[in-house]
Amino acid sequence: MKDDVIISDHEDDIIYEHDDIIRDHDDIIRDHDDDILDDNNNTQLKNNDIIINNNNKVITPFDYERLIASEKNKSAIWISYIAFYLEQNNLEEARKVAERALKTIDIHEIDEKLNIYLCYINMECLYGDKLNDIFKRALLCNNEKSIYLHTIHILKKNKKLTQLKDLCEEAIKKFKYSKKIWSCYLQILHNTFKDEEYAHNILLKSLHSLPKKKHLNMIINAARFEYKYSNKERGKTYFEKLIQEYPKRSDLWFTYLDIHINSLTKNENKEKIKLNLKELQFIRNIFERFLSYKFKPRVMKIIFTKWLLFEKSQGNMHSQKTVQEKAYKYVESLNALV
Fold this sequence. Notes:
GO biological process, one term: rRNA processing
Protein name: Pre-mRNA-splicing factor Syf1/CRNKL1-like C-terminal HAT-repeats domain-containing protein
InterPro entries: HAT (IPR003107), HAT_Syf1_CNRKL1_C (IPR055430), Rrp5 (IPR045209), TPR-like_helical_dom_sf (IPR011990)
Strand order of the largest sheet: 1-2
Organism: Plasmodium falciparum (isolate 7G8)
Number of helices: 15
Main location: nucleus
């Protein structure tokens, strides 16, 4: 692997990023029944203005207006009010509530306003035709990268694939130094578009754009996506090249082991899968190579423990005893030095 692809040994330990690289936001219609006060004595009900929630509480626009009057900065109330109109298929009234919320919530309540913008983006993606306008407005007064990531997630979730790809391409140009943006797009290319060739091109582009200190984590993400969605052999090749370059990075070895073992032993139904002899031998070989670099005792203990747990799950009594004997010999070698 070329030198300009790998970060130096002095970088921070690898942070293993799980598939939730992008934080999953709730759907726009949420249940905020606990926030709604039940005061039937002061409420005049009209048939077209009420809904009955699961707790048999009557909720009306008057209830929401009363709550807003006392807690105008609470985005949860505004979002529940928006959902009230969406449940009645009244998009225009829902939009009016969203606009009122943005004007009413105090300017210093940044997170509360952000919640409204995210809700508004969700609503337009699901039901409306003004997503682009709301997206641009949200960019003006919020963290731009957060807005891009959220909108990308919503488009992906709702299978708006043309808009999704266009926005991803726009994002990698705008945030060319962001590993999170590149990783997000790379994952989408693997698990949504199933485009391995273009995913490989995007990986190369990301390494050209990102600062060198972010290269290693980017390659690990690429390997993980290959394992999970596309080509396990290519993912394995990425890791093998990395450990050749950085054999003393224990965090890299552990990440390789975790991803490789999980890819073979876990399926969507979470059923236990027994490995064949070839697969067992390959994983044992990784453990052997890992141990050969004589890490500090604390790390060596973790390696032996991890290997023994693996043998208890996939091996037999003989293989477990073999690992225990290796551990005993290592401890004896340490005692001999004292």
